[in-house]
Write a structure and sequence with these properties.
Length: 189
């Protein structure tokens, strides 16, 4: 993975660092306010895409998403990325929440364009986020939460070298009322 970090001045005149993580097929760059467009809002509100994500409960608007991105830009421990293919088309998002004191990080991802599913890109995103966490942030343990029916996500994490840490019984209620377990998976540096 190749990483470039640039220091910029954010809209509220505070210094912000923009990260750009590059792998074989992807460019994963800190989300900018101008990345919030109808395509991104459509993914976040799509019941097919958000079925197993926290955001399934919300109705995301351009305003709410810009506020969310602004918060992430200003945070020193919450990273939110736009995932792009090699031609710089946005295909999804990724997030990393850094707990510096315990040298841990929690990650999440969403490939919003379903045309890109099942091509190994989920695993590639996870591997890039882990390299960033381990090599640049000094993290020793990366964790993720996955709802039990989300078989593709579990498989993508396992392919990226994660192992099962716990199964939490009846952790979540899906939009159709189904009550499901969740898995906590982890990977050490
Ligand atoms: C989950 C997600 C990130 C996976 O991304 P992806 O690019 O499809 O992942 P990969 O291609 O690396 O791996 C998916 C694997 O799951 C397998 N798979 C897909 N659907 C499956 C199913 N219903 N049952 C079992 N395995 C399944 C694929 O065959 C593939 O395994 P393989 O490479 O051994 O053939 C993507 O589907 C996504 O963004 N979904 C919407 C948001 C989401 O759920 N995010 C994860 C939150 S924890």
């Amino acid at each position: 993975m190749q990483m470039v970090s640039t220091l910029g001045i954010g809209t509220n005149v505070m210094a912000t660092i923009e990260h750009s993580l590059v792998s074989n097929r992807l460019v994963i760059r800190s989300m900018r306010l101008e990345d919030v467009n109808s395509k991104l809002i459509g993914w976040l509100n799509s019941p097919t895409i958000n079925r197993y994500l926290e955001v399934r409960r919300a109705t995301v608007t351009e305003h709410s998403q810009k506020e969310f991105v602004k918060q992430k830009i200003e945070s020193s421990s919450e990273y939110y990325f736009l995932v792009m293919d090699s031609r710089h088309n946005g295909i999804g998002t990724a997030s990393l929440s850094w707990d510096g004191e315990n040298r841990k990080a929690a990650i999440g991802l969403m490939i919003g364009d379903a045309e890109y599913w099942n091509k190994g890109l989920g695993s590639e995103i996870i591997e890039v986020l882990c390299s960033f966490a381990f090599d640049s942030l000094g993290v020793r343990k990366v964790v993720a939460g996955i709802l039990e029916p989300n078989k593709a996500s579990l498989r993508a994490f396992m392919k990226a070298g994660f192992s099962m840490e716990a199964q939490l019984k009846e952790e979540a209620v899906l939009e159709d009322g189904e009550i499901v377990d969740s898995y906590r998976v982890c990977k050490f540096s």
